[in-house]
Predict the 3D structure of the following.
Amino acid sequence: MLSSRTGSGYAIKDDGDSIPAGLLNPQKARILLQLGLASGLDAAAIRTLFAF
């Protein structure tokens, strides 16, 4: 999970191993990731949660 803590950044670096959080701050990205994992989603499905 990659996210920006600057408040005005867009995390888009996608090296294949990580999932960019886009415009979400780290706290919101963590909650969304936790919900996806708790729902039993695989990595591909979690990537779609963060694709916007």
